[in-house]
Amino acid sequence: MLTAGVDLAADPVGTAIAAVAWSASGAEVRLVAVPADDDAIVELAGRAAKTGIDCPLGWPDEFVAFVSAHRAGPAPVPADVAAKQWRRRLAWRHTDEVARRMTGLVPLSVSADRIGHTAMRCAALQTRLARAGRDVDRSGAGAVVEVYPAASLKVWGLPWRGYKTAGNRAALGVVVDRLQQAAPWLDLGDHEQLCRRSDHALDAVVAALTARAAVRDQVGRPGERELAAARTEGWIAIPTAALAGLPG
Questions:
Q1: Which Pfam families match (predicted)?
Q2: What is the mean pLDDT of the chain?
């Protein structure tokens, strides 16, 4: 089985992809590439059983309704709710709030932060994957699943912050060291040095590992009442089991 990971950015130059092949006893990283354009992402996702994408797959339902209403005329501003509270529902999706409760981490707002540029690219990628015959279900039930590498690392007991940007190369190396210690069954092969130089590369590998957790049903799933929103807004797959449970 092959799982893939995408650390998506608004442009190919900051985007990384990874592919991990799984066996009963372990896993081998077969591909890590930076940069990565849309063609490379679609091709890899077409071969993988599941692809983890580090980017919101949709926007908050209430934000979409608010903007649509504002375009047509006066925006619906609730009179009996504090401004900070109703704006919060426009900025963060339900899955973002669930991730906050589960991990203590605060995902970027897809409607009020620069990650919105990346989400536009992601929406176009979802369209291309669907046209190529891949089952794109934003709840994570199909060929792609939304992931949050920092949350995965934190749940797995690994360093999850302080390793971003080239100025934190030493911290990035520590994350790789800790990952290899926690997952001796994971063979980074010739891609280890790239993961030590690029946090995008490492996050793509973590995204592929999280995709495997989703395949193994070792991530949180939306409940019955959450499913409708998950299918429009997206749903972050946060691991619920140890890293050691991924092979097999």
A1: DUF429 (PF04250)
A2: 96
